Amino acid sequence: MERLGNVVIVQSESEQSFAELFAPLVQPAYRLACAMLHDASAAEDIVQEASLIAWRKLRNLDDRSHLRSWFLGIVANECRNARRRGWQRHVSIGLPSRLSVVSAEDRSVSREDTRRALMRLSHEDRLVVSLYFYLDMPVSEIASVIRATEAAARARLYRAIRRLRPDLAVEEALR
Amino acid sequence: MSLRTEIRSAIDQVSPPAPTLETKVIAYVAAEEPKRRRLSGRRQGRVFRAPLALVAAVLLVALVGGLILAGRYWRELNSPPQTISLTELRGLEGRPLAFPAVPPGATCPFTPSTVDPNLGFVIGSGPLYLTNGDWLLIGQQAEWMAVTFNYQAVKPGLVLIRARDLKTNQTVAFAQYPFGPSGVIATGQVTGSDHVEERSLEMRSEAVARDPWHTQPINKQGELPYLKAMLGSRKGVSGCVGLQFDVPGFIQNLVIDLRSPSAPGQ
């Protein structure tokens, strides 16, 4: 009964409650999805889907102080799924297309190289790099997102940095 | 420039501000809410707990059975196609490539898209259409795009697919689609290997598909597997890619844009 009671409590929370809980997380989620997919419109879709999943599963979250890392974990998982079903997503468009207009600035070699290097990383490596360098997340919270120990998260981050920039010492990269 | 600045600068380029996203997300979730509340209002969870366990057990058995069948099917798809006639294949390979010439500096003559009443936007005039293409993965050797075809075959026979970068005349590699069953089989000469998303791709010079009469359905409804091919452009190519389909009775040429979204403009 208690569980059923919980469900009722969670599901009777209003749209306002959802906004209070998740609105502050939407932009970090969007930034993470952009970092993972390099596709802004796909990132928006991901955030919407992840928000719905999170709202449905909110009752499974024991400690709401971990809401941010829990939610970003869902976003990361949706990004992984999106890459797998990526081309079904574009069935209605039906064409190989340039997804965005490329500006002159965008032709910058270093940015281009960095983006390509990021996209070459595996999903797991790109995730820790994005969380650490782009969302400024501490390793302890990254560990919570990827559901690993802090030591494992740190090891994964170091490994990802070495793969991303073999020419750079990890200590230097972390500065 | 620190690595952090470098990464931020690179990602900022592909993450434009989305100031109204919060509103959109709240509206999206709110739209689903009444439906969820209706479902959760029922107390079926307690009443049907035992039958649900039974259903779960049946589903588990079905899942295991399905995995076994899918595994067998997957192996079959990835094994050399037994029904392909080498004589037929060599005959198709003997046909000359008929790609349009693209002089240096010229604009790529992309094949225009049309709208098919059943398939939506397509490239091609049929019976073979390109129905979808999406940039997927960047490997060490090439950038890979998955393309999907629709073939409304008028007579039995193999489909041979070959591709070239029209500006550099480099070959475009094919690889077996690694994320699910596909009716397109990468074949021909092995030209290398690549590694993407922790999966190995064997790069091949061409691909073949069997016609619908000789393709094994994926279910009892007789549905055929998607015709999905992985096309890999090596670094330094233009992305102006010609595809040639050699099929009994006709040859079809298409020109598509095989550049990744992050590639600089031409």
Summarize the structure.
The complex is a heterodimer of chains A (175) and B (266). With 175 residues, chain A is mainly alpha-helical. Chain A is built from ten helices and no strands.
Structural features, described:
The complex is a heterodimer of chains A (175) and B (266). With 175 residues, chain A is an all-alpha fold. Chain A has a single domain, classed as Winged helix-like DNA-binding domain superfamily/Winged helix DNA-binding domain (Arc Repressor Mutant, subunit A). Chain A is built from 10 helices and no strands. In chain A, helix 2 crosses helix 3, helix 2 crosses helix 7 and helix 8 crosses helix 9. Chain A is globular and about 50 Å long. Chain A starts with a helix and ends with a helix. The N terminus of chain A is likely disordered. With 266 residues, chain B is an alpha+beta fold. Chain B has 2 domains: 76 residues, no CATH class; 171 residues, Sandwich (Immunoglobulin-like), CATH 2.60.40. Helix content of chain B is 27%, strand content 33%. Chain B has 5 helices and 11 strands; from the N terminus they run αααααβββββββββββ. In chain B, the strands form 3 sheets. A 5-stranded antiparallel β-sheet of chain B has the order 7-8-5-10-11, covered by helices on one side. A 4-stranded antiparallel β-sheet of chain B has the order 3-4-9-6, with no helix packed on it. Chain B has a two-stranded antiparallel sheet with strand order 1-2. Chain B is globular and about 60 Å long. Chain B starts with a helix and ends in a 9-residue tail after the last strand. The C terminus of chain B is likely disordered. At the A-B interface, helix 1, helix 2, helix 3, helix 5 and helix 6 of A face helix 1, helix 2, strand 2, strand 3 and strand 4 of B.
